[in-house]
Design goal:
It is built from twelve helices and 20 strands. With 499 residues, the chain is of the alpha/beta class.
């Protein structure tokens, strides 16, 4: 290289054919139980609401602050019993009470699995006309509170809203008759478009769609009814195909392997969860240890922590509870990452990361992953194109190779790199309790809700040269004062230092 070329390169700002990159290998954390949004063990809070007692959570806020299970939870099941409204419209006071409860969830950093019902111990639910009218009243309130609703269970029909033992929709039946179909149509309309509607039996979804084709990757997250209907199983581990969950309602075996395969396949793209209802001690002893393999196969993202105690107490005493608590839902961990040492303002920033999901399930509700650059005075966020919902479970690894573009007005300096997975809703996006924590050591920043990538990158000022390597006679693109200069070398170029 001639002296003139050398001096020219030292005074030019630089850059472009390539930048040095640093590789970071991460230490995974396979032992710590910590909370993450939209997954894990849950408790249920339920009760009859009325004009005079129109809340489930207001006045009960200390529930979220108790020690023990609360310390690892970010999800609660809410069941609003509409017994007092079976023959009349929902009141303004009742609907306001619902909105107030949703605000409690925001304040406490929780989301809910939501259900409405009319009956607990008898078959006397409301008529189809009343149910459809109530759903229409609830629609705007579901929409305005979608940020803290993880999923809506179909509910309304039968005892506990579990679509069985019903006076108005066919007793002891899973069949999707005209009245049940009308409720499902109304629920799909009222459920926020970016939230899932969970049905109690796979047969309900099959009959609604008119086929037994499980949802696939190609049609997942499309917004169609097939892509929006998920599942809940409130008879987990019980006999007879989980109390008919995997049955054909008298038209086939109590435990149909076709239905099991259907759930196993499509719960890669729609949620599945519920509770065990095993109350027989001898059965509990024989099935409690099956929980991990069943949850892994059917991709469970949430489960009741208490009911039924015959099983959940065995989980706790045997130590299985902790394992399930770690792995239920998603559990993302970084394996390695490669990041550039330096990139100029407006320049290309190549990023490569490998993410492993050791959990039983994927992430289901949409959110964006960001690379965040933080200096002592400035913060810049760059969105990744990789969809975290596609980071599949059961130890699958996803490699992310993307080239980001730095803002042209980014302030020169040294930036630390973070991975941030905030909630998609602006109302809670800045709350770290709604951000996703990675299962790596020395990674989580609970104050910001960001994950430390263990890497730094420099954005050089106009008088700095960024390291690069060129081959003989290879044109070099160099940016200076907003103008792109192309130089051709006369001999082999080596890595330039900093001026």
């Amino acid at each position: 290289m001639t002296v003139s070329h050398w001096l020219c390169c030292l005074c030019l700002c630089a850059l472009t054919l390539s930048v040095k990159a640093g590789v970071v290998t991460y230490t995974v954390d396979d032992t710590t139980v910590f909370p993450n949004p939209e997954r894990g063990f849950t408790d249920e809070i339920s009760g009859k609401v009325s004009d005079s007692k129109n809340h489930l959570l207001v006045g009960n806020e200390d529930y979220f602050d108790r020690a023990g299970d609360r310390e690892t939870q970010r999800l609660v099941v809410l069941l609003y019993n509409l017994y007092n409204y079976k023959t009349k419209a929902l009141s303004t006071r009742m609907l306001q009470g619902f909105d107030d409860d949703m605000q409690v969830l925001r304040n406490k950093g929780y989301k809910c699995v939501l259900r409405f019902a009319y009956s607990e111990s008898d078959k006397r639910d409301a008529t189809k006309e009343r149910v459809v009218a109530h759903i229409a009243q609830l629609k705007p309130h579901l929409s305005s509170n979608a940020d803290v609703i993880y999923a809506l269970e179909a509910g309304f029909v039968g005892e506990w809203g579990e679509w069985y033992y019903s006076a108005n929709f066919g007793n002891e039946s899973q069949q999707l008759n005209a009245n049940r179909r009308a409720v499902l149509v109304s629920l799909l309309d009222a459920c926020p478009a970016d939230r899932f509607l969970l049905v109690r039996y796979p047969l309900i979804k099959m009959q609604y769609l008119g086929d037994e084709q499980a949802l696939t990757s190609d049609s997942a997250f499309s917004g169609s009814p097939r892509a929006r209907i998920g599942h809940h199983n409130d008879a987990f581990l019980n006999d007879y195909g989980n109390d008919g969950t995997y049955g054909r309602d008298g038209d086939g075996p109590d435990d149909d392997p076709v239905l099991r395969q259907y759930i196993a396949a499509e719960t890669l793209y729609v949620p599945n969860g519920g509770e065990t209802n095993v109350e027989n001690s001898s059965l509990a002893q024989s099935v409690y240890a099956n929980a991990e393999s069943e949850m892994r196969t059917y991709h469970w993202s949430f489960c009741g922590a208490e009911y039924a105690e015959e099983v959940t107490n065995l989980w706790r005493s045997s130590g299985i509870f902790e394992q399930l608590n770690r792995l239920m839902g998603y559990r993302f961990q970084l394996v390695n990452g490669t990041y550039p040492d330096a990139v100029p303002a407006g320049g290309a920033m190549p990023v490569s990361m490998t993410v492993r999901n050791t959990g039983f399930a994927p992430l289901y509700n949409a959110r964006t992953a960001y690379i965040v650059l933080c200096s002592a005075t400035d913060t810049f966020r760059l969105a990744l194109q990789s969809d975290p919902r596609r980071w599949l479970p059961n130890n699958a690894e996803t490699t992310i190779n993307e080239t980001l573009t730095l803002p042209s007005d980014i302030v020169p300096g040294t930036y630390h790199l973070y991975l941030h997975l905030p909630d998609a809703y602006a109302s809670i996006a800045d709350n770290p309790r709604f951000a996703i924590r990675l299962a790596n050591t020395n990674c989580w920043d609970g104050t910001t809700g960001m994950n430390d990538l263990g890497a730094e990158m420099t954005v050089p000022s106009g008088e700095q040269a960024v390291p690069y390597v060129t081959a003989p006679d290879t044109p070099r693109k160099i940016l200076r004062d907003g103008q792109l200069l192309i130089l051709r070398g006369e001999s082999t170029y080596t890595i330039l230092g900093w001026q």
